[in-house]
Amino acid sequence: MGAGTGAGAGTGTGTRSRNRNRNKEQEQKQEHEQEQQQEQEQEQEEERKWEQEQEWEWEEEQKWEHEREQEQEQKLEQE
């Protein structure tokens, strides 16, 4: 009876150990997926910022061109 209990306890410990390892693997997998998701979100955020900057630069350029055109028109009118 003692040997049976010992073997059973050993098996139980092995199962617990495997479950613990499986849980650890699952946690690591989830952490990895979360890190990947955070990286993706960060890249998307940086891309949005870059696009916004491009848009602002374009708008500034348009304003600048418009002002330059107005100045040229005024010069022509004065001449």
UniProtKB/TrEMBL annotation:
<feature type="compositionally biased region" description="Basic and acidic residues">
    <location>
        <begin position="61"/>
        <end position="79"/>
    </location>
</feature>
<feature type="compositionally biased region" description="Acidic residues">
    <location>
        <begin position="36"/>
        <end position="45"/>
    </location>
</feature>
<feature type="compositionally biased region" description="Gly residues">
    <location>
        <begin position="1"/>
        <end position="13"/>
    </location>
</feature>
<feature type="compositionally biased region" description="Basic and acidic residues">
    <location>
        <begin position="22"/>
        <end position="35"/>
    </location>
</feature>
<protein>
    <submittedName>
        <fullName>Uncharacterized protein</fullName>
    </submittedName>
</protein>
<feature type="region of interest" description="Disordered">
    <location>
        <begin position="1"/>
        <end position="79"/>
    </location>
</feature>
